[in-house]
Specification:
Helix content of chain A: 40-55%
Structural class of chain B: mainly alpha
Strand order of the largest sheet of chain A: 2-1-3-11-6
Oligomer: heterodimer
Helix content of chain B: over 70%
CATH architecture of the largest domain in chain B: Orthogonal Bundle
Number of helices of chain B: 18
Number of helices of chain A: 19
Number of strands of chain A: 11
CATH topology of the largest domain in chain A: D-Maltodextrin-Binding Protein, domain 2
Number of domains of chain B: 3
Radius of gyration of chain B: 33 Å
Largest interface: A-B, 33 and 36 residues
Strand content of chain B: under 5%
CATH superfamily of the largest domain in chain A: Periplasmic binding protein-like II
Number of domains of chain A: 2
Chain lengths: 419, 404
């Protein structure tokens, strides 16, 4: 908070001084020759502020990346516009701002499923030419993340950090044999159900398996996994219903989001849980169990791809600066900081092999996690994703809560997927 | 007696009229206007109200730019003749697109201009096809991208999106709309009925001249003073399937099969939202009724008592009839309020229980359907108008006292 106020004042001054200078197109103008080289120590009165819209980060990583960017730059300075951690609310906030054509944010972070809509609506700019000028190619980045931001043959995003659904299990409870089976990924939801039944109650656990089943985006991710990317809708949903109705899941599993899931697992109440990679860090930070007690495995039909992307506001006044910031965050330096200081999965492929990253991020070295990375599945890709997702949530939740039968639900899901 | 106003008097109320026009008439009118357009914010071809055809030069330019840019890659995999042709195509595109650079406003095109652009797009498409067909073995980078770009370029032409009454027709076929209407009506009827009965009881108690009644009146109002969003959160914890106190008590007395029923089944959610609403707005109802109760002449009760009327008889023969005006107003206010319910459901049930407001919000903000979402809002407006009409004209509620 203390740092905030001067930043705002500075921003105001900079806006004023910029206005006084008249508008110079940022695209080609080199930094003014008169500008002293060693500016980093001096008050950054002449730097252009690049505003970056991102959610609060419980790890120091995002701030560290921005600090590193600011230290590396004599032309721009990045300012973090803190967004709400409620993704739905953040999306609405961004849309309200971008729809009005405002330049409040230069770089925006987007959930993977928003990119299609934002691109279709014309809120963000394609970046192919910037990438080419910087000598970057699409194949250098996480494939799933890049694909989610490709719309009408143009690339709109760089990965901020990719995410994937994985299975966490209690190594101290599950037998070595079963652990090996889980880590290989060669098991089914029925096997998981049986294991949950078998191990539930040991070491003070009260539940077998916890995952996300409340009516929200998380339900789509989980249903995507149960149905094997909608290949077996009927079988997958029946499996999910059996899990919901069984005594192996909490009675109120239909209200579970990531928060409840993580809470149950890190407090040692459940044997298995499906969550995103961040839960590994939560175990360490606030768990009553330790990381030694936890194993990671792929989900039976693969894990949904999630994560966040970086995109450029079409109405940004400083597109060159916005690109510089995006590039910095998404490539070696930024991704290394994100990974080592925040435990995020790198979205820049070369960073995956960086020795410091592998040493600093225990998950990357785990065989179960490596297997999980090879079997990821995407959610439906659509320019009207929120409509598709909303219809899926409605249909599936009705079925799981017992107010619709399986056949109507399968038809509704198929209709929803058709768009 | 309504008196004619002089011009000078009119000037004094003019600012008020302007304020009403700007802040209440204008939004209502624009909502109505939205409903007759296929207005969707996530599609650039529909993201405004277009009454005539127009052209989006920025989109056209961007796609041209992309084709030229992708052609540079394509030129690297063909022979000299191919390179020359690709260069020629690039040059033609560059020349054609130049006037559209940096134009951000949509333009109205004349017929010949539009045709010129249409035929340009078609020609480029053909010439690109010819190149691709000429080198079936070359490993082009962007062969699949080109048709997509050309298609996107076509979308630079914006057709009028006036859609007449089709949004309203869609309402009739939309099962989700009727479901939401049913939930809203159910919520309104049940919660307002309960609030009325409880509120009346509370008002009768608060009307008694006993010591410390001021304190009772003040404390009774506390639920009403808590913001709905906060009370919804409090109730959410109390209905929680594991640790919620209310849900566990209900389950213990066999009112519900299991604690988690309250927030995960349809009827559980209906029940829990009604209970929360009744808890919150009963004091408000009581306050409105209390005001009515206090206007009744004490003398009437004394006369009734002398004539030997019992408490029940007095209540139904004197209190209720004399309170009719204030009861009608209280019911009307509460029903209109309950019909618009949004925040309680959105927070307590995370939007799973869809009232009309929640549905309209999901359509407009969630999915970007401003046109259709506005139609839902207008339908809601119609329902509210009908309720108000019935109360005022049929039941004779006097919301605003006239001096006539």
């Amino acid at each position: 908070m203390k740092k905030r106020i001067p930043a705002f004042i500075l921003a105001g001054f900079m806006a004023l001084s910029l206005a006084a200078c008249g508008t110079t197109p940022a695209s080609t103008a080199p930094p003014p020759a008169s500008q002293p080289a060693a500016l980093s120590a001096a008050p950054s009165g002449e730097k252009v502020v690049i505003k970056f819209a991102a959610q609060g980060d419980s790890t120091p990583a995002t701030q560290a990346v921005l600090d590193a960017f600011n230290a590396s730059q004599d032309q721009y300075t990045a300012e973090w516009m803190d967004m709400t951690n409620d993704s739905g609310a953040m999306r609405e906030q961004l849309i309200t701002s971008l729809k009005a054509g405002s330049a409040d944010y230069d770089v925006v972070s987007l959930d993977v499923v928003w990119a299609g809509e934002f691109a279709a609506a014309g809120y963000i700019d394609p970046i192919d030419t910037y990438m080419k000028d910087a000598g970057l190619s699409v194949s250098q980045f996480n494939a799933g993340s890049m694909a989610s931001g490709k719309y009408s043959a143009k690339q709109y995003v760089l990965p901020f950090f990719p995410d994937l659904g994985i299975l966490y299990f209690r190594k101290d409870i599950v037998s070595a044999e079963d652990a090996a089976k889980l880590e290989s990924g060669d098991y089914t939801y029925a096997d998981l159900q049986a294991m949950a039944e078998q191990y539930k109650g040991q070491e003070g656990t009260t539940d077998g398996f916890v995952y996300q089943s409340s009516q929200y985006e998380g339900l789509v991710c989980n249903a995507n996994e149960f149905t094997g990317n909608w290949q077996d809708i009927k079988g997958g949903l029946e499996e999910m219903k059996a899990m919901t109705d069984s005594a192996n899941t909490p009675a109120d599993i239909l209200n579970y989001t990531e928060g409840e899931t993580a809470n149950s697992f890190i407090k040692g109440q459940s044997v298995f849980s499906r969550n995103w990679p961040y839960q590994w860090g939560s175990v360490k930070a606030e768990g009553t169990i330790t990381q030694e007690q936890v194993g990671i495995a792929p989900l039976p039909n693969g894990g949904s791809v999630g994560g966040w992307l970086l995109a450029m506001n079409k109405n940004s006044a400083n597109k060159e600066g916005a690109w510089e910031l995006m590039k910095f965050i998404a490539t070696e330096e930024g991704q290394k900081i994100m990974s080592t200081q925040g435990g995020y999965l790198p979205g820049f492929n070369a960073t995956l092999e960086d020795a410091d990253v592998v040493a600093g991020n225990e998950m990357l070295g785990m065989p179960g996690f490596q297997n999980a990375m090879t079997t990821t599945i995407a959610r439906p890709v659509s320019a009207e994703y929120s409509k598709v997702s909303d219809a899926l949530q409605q249909a599936i939740y009705k079925y799981l809560s017992g107010s619709a039968d399986i056949d109507t639900t399968v038809t509704a899901v198929e209709d929803a997927l058709k768009g | 007696m309504v008196k004619r106003m002089t011009f000078k008097q009119f000037l004094f109320i003019l600012p008020l009229l302007v304020i009403i026009a700007v802040f209440s008439i204008y939004p209502i009118v624009s909502s109505f206007v939205y409903t007759v357009f296929d207005y969707r914010i996530y599609d650039q071809q529909y993201s405004s109200l277009y009454v005539s055809s127009s052209f989006n030069p920025a989109r056209f330019y961007e796609n041209c730019d992309y084709i030229v840019y992708y052609l540079q890659d394509e030129a690297t995999v063909v022979d000299e003749a191919g390179k020359a042709e690709i260069q020629a195509i690039s040059n033609e595109i560059s020349a054609f697109m130049a006037p559209y650079q940096n134009q951000t406003q949509n333009q109205t095109l004349s017929g010949p201009e539009a045709e010129k652009i249409e035929s340009f797009i078609a020609t480029i498409g053909q010439r690109l096809n010819t190149v691709y067909n000429q080198y079936p073995n070359a490993e082009f980078y962007h062969q699949e991208d080109m048709p997509i770009l050309l298609e996107d370029m076509q979308k630079s032409f914006i057709q009028p999106n006036f859609s007449g009454i089709s949004n309203y027709q869609r309402l009739f076929k939309d099962a989700r709309f009727w479901g939401a209407l049913g939930i809203t009506a159910l919520f309104m009827v049940v919660s307002v009925s309960l609030e009325f009965v409880l509120g009346m009881a509370l008002a009768l108690i608060m009307n008694k001249a006993i010591k410390g009644i001021g304190l009772v009146r003040t404390t009774a109002l506390i639920p009403w003073a808590i913001p709905t969003a906060v009370s919804a959160l409090i109730w959410m914890y109390m209905y929680d399937g594991q640790s919620g106190v209310v849900s566990n008590i209900f389950a213990a007395v066999q009112l519900i099969p299991a604690p988690e029923t309250m927030l995960s089944t349809f009827w559980g959610m209906v029940g829990s939202s009604i209970i929360s609403d009744v808890w919150k707005t009963t004091p408000y109802m009581a306050l409105l009724l209390l005001a009515g109760l206090q206007t009744i002449d004490r003398g009437l009760y004394e006369s009734a008592a002398i004539d030997g009327s019992g408490t029940v008889n007095t209540f139904f023969r004197i209190t209720l009839p004399l309170m009719k005006p204030s009861i009608l107003v209280a019911l009307l206010f509460r029903m209109l309020d309950a019909f618009r319910v949004y925040d309680l459901l959105y927070i307590l049930t995370r939007g799973s229980l869809e009232s009309l407001s929640v549905y309209a919000y999901k359509l407009m903000i969630g999915q970007g359907y401003y046109g259709y979402g506005s139609a839902v809002v207008v339908a809601m407006f119609a329902c509210v108008a009908i309720i108000a009409f019935v109360f005022v004209k049929v039941l004779g509620a006097e919301v605003v006292g006239n001096d006539e």
